User: What shape does this take?
Amino acid sequence: MSKTVVVLGAGVAGLTAAAELRKILPAEDRIVLIDRSFEGSLGLSLLWVLRGWRSVDQVAVRPTAAALPGVDVVNGEVARIDLDSRTVDCGPGGTIRYHALLIALGASLDPDRLPGLSAALDAGVAGQFYSAAGAVDLHDKVESLESGRVVVLVSAVPFKCPAAPFEAAFLLADQLGDRFGSGAVRVDVFTPDPLPMPVAGPAVGAALVDMMGAKGIGFHGGKIARAIDPYSRGIEFADGTPESFDLLAAVPPHTPGAVLASTGLDAAGWIPVDPATLATTTPGVYAAGDCAALLLPNGKPLPKAAIFAEAQAQAAAHQIARHLGYDAPDTRFTGEGACYVELGGGLAAKGEGNFLAARAPQVRLRGPSAAYHAEKQQQERDWLARWNIRA
Assistant: This one.
């Protein structure tokens, strides 16, 4: 009897898992990949769009059936996941029954969660760099700024790509050029965390603070934003202190979306998984990528990053095959990963290590060097070539 595996979401995790499942499952088994549009952008390139080094089209990811041979590609908005009946409701796209399910719906931006942020975005005094269009818009705003203060604000945790806000600060300073070098425009970063990338450990965080300081970028940790005033261009923090800005580069609050909360796997919506197998508490149901809540041995959550999403998807695909009774490798997610921090001028630092190491992650920050910048460029080329295949 043939089986059906449904994969929800065509981001890094969903695409990787669907392709891997097709390799290891029998041809008679059906693999269904569901996404609302199959139109996305390569996340690792968005900060290059912000800097002006890439266009929206250059970082577009538009996977088609030609890129996923043997996978049923279904355009549809997931309206409901019913774990009891093992069905996924896609609204007008119909209901699909599954034998195994991988949830890889990512994380969405929810600027309304921070009072005043949506109004500031609408008024043009704030921008964000978590979408290609947003990154282009923020680039243009920076380009027209002659003087004042740019504030990079982490609105809330968790958020996608732990290095992104600090990488953005470096690239904004690089874009500003003489305006930043002369002091006409300042760049400051505010985050609720005490240090950048706290899960990577204090040494990595302190090294990033030192790198920002050497560039003249201000770092302010432990600052929890409560509200944005788009008219006075001010930020109100939980400790009662106000900060002003001329341009706000915001990391909006992230949300897993209502459909994930409807599964009942977790009230907050982020889906708890086994760190090694990505299995949820419901047999046959797995989650990978940004929507998954994977706790490390020290009790902190694994950062939401594409490098982890890809590795999780590989492990989850193999575990799904084993769950269905096939002789597949017993692949486990190891927590090994690396990310790049672009500094401008063709240089990048590289953080790498094991985030699932006993007691605490063992991570080291290397660089900066031109070689790491080149590595990231190659990573971008490989991913775009892998999925933008046309018939």
Summary: The chain has two domains: 4-36+76-107+256-333, 110-254.
